[in-house]
Amino acid sequence: MPRLERSHFRQSMGLLLTRRFGTFWFASLLANIGTWAQQMAQPWLMLSLGASPFLLGLDSFASGAPVLLLTLVGGALADQTDRRRTIAIFQSIQMVCPVVLVVLILTGQVSPWMVIAMSLVVGVTDALSMPSFQSIVPSIVRPDQIPTGIALNSTQFNLSRILGPAIAGVLMASVGMAGAFAVSALSYVPFILVALWVLPALPAAKGLSVALDHRQLLASVGAVAREPSLRGGLLTVLTTALLCAPLITFCPVLVKEVFQGSAADFSLALGAFGLGGLLGASALLAVDPQRDRRRFSAWFALLYAVIVLLAALNPWSLGLVALLLCAGVAMTVSNASANAVLQSCAPSHLRGQAASMFMLAMRGGMSLGSLVTGLTVHAWGVREALVINGTLALLIHVIVGRVWVQAPLVAASGD
């Protein structure tokens, strides 16, 4: 691991003081606090309604499965339409979902299937708008600042992982679960407004019909997939999402059914994961932006697989908190490093598609992993399912990582 330097850290923090990036960072923090408040409340609500581990996995699958079908279209939208409009339309639709859940909870009409239906709507809108969101940072910083911008963006995301569950825990204990969903709904507003401000508009001639040209879509996907330095990053992220991310999806099962914990214990566990992510992202800020980050991604992905195995065998509730702290570090360093490689090496006219493929690997992998792991949890138990996942992830990361870090790193070309 390269030596961390204070000068790089100070330069990285200076980007946070710029008007456009700083405003975007803060609006994103607010939005993600709301998202994580809902992510804390939703699985606990499902379990409180009597949902099985399979339904918990199905809920996660519903929110992530549309990525498998629609995120490449979202990447085309990000590259060839007005990203401001894309974000505003789909995020506004998504904002309605927590509002509906608040009404259902307050009227006593909520059921697990209604929650899953709202997750499906969120998944569709995410798939179509997240590539536009992911390509914001490269649009508002200089090319040499892209790794720093992505690392800074990762710090706010992981800070929200601490603050969101903490706020949700307080609200759930005081005003009930509806409070966490209300915070989620309100958090969309500042992000939509800031996205409309910071993003440059594309010419009006570039419309949806151009973006959905399937031949151009397949060509851009193929161009990204053929580049070894990009392909290795995508495979690393996919393996982590498919086999390691279910540790977080089924964390409420571990807390409630294995350790007989409460919502406060679940909040503590998620907060530890967020704190680990914040520490990992902060460490990346002190790394020279010019360094090759593939080794970071590969080694920390391997570490995450080991942590999943240890979590499956761990007999102590506090041990789970400590392991989730380490998991947050490992996941953030690995995924943020892979994303930095993708966004730095992809040609500028394909950055939206590279972002969509990153989302496809991460969100699509998480959705499939949650569904399959839900089945294995139902059949054999949560500990046994995590042992299987951790072992498979360990083997795949060893194979993929060795090939990826030895491939030549190609710098991005212009339009």
Question: How would you describe the overall organization of this protein?
Answer:
The protein is mainly α. It has a single domain, classed as Growth Hormone, Chain: A, CATH 1.20.1250. It is built from 18 helices and no strands. Helix 17 (351-380) packs antiparallel against helix 18 (382-406).
Topology of helices and strands:
Elements: H1 6-16, H2 19-48, H3 53-80, H4 83-106, H5 112-134, H6 136-140, H7 146-174, H8 177-198, H9 208-211, H10 214-226, H11 228-244, H12 246-249, H13 251-258, H14 263-285, H15 294-313, H16 317-345, H17 351-380, H18 382-406
Task: Supply the key terms.
415 residues; mainly alpha; Growth Hormone, Chain: A; globular
Number of helices: 18
Distance between the termini: 34 Å
**CATH topology tier name:** Growth Hormone, Chain: A
Describe the oligomeric state of these chains in a short phrase: single chain
**CATH superfamily, please?**
MFS general substrate transporter like domains
Instruction: Classify the secondary structure makeup into a structural class.
Output: mainly alpha
Determine the fraction of residues in helical runs and give it as a percent range: over 70%
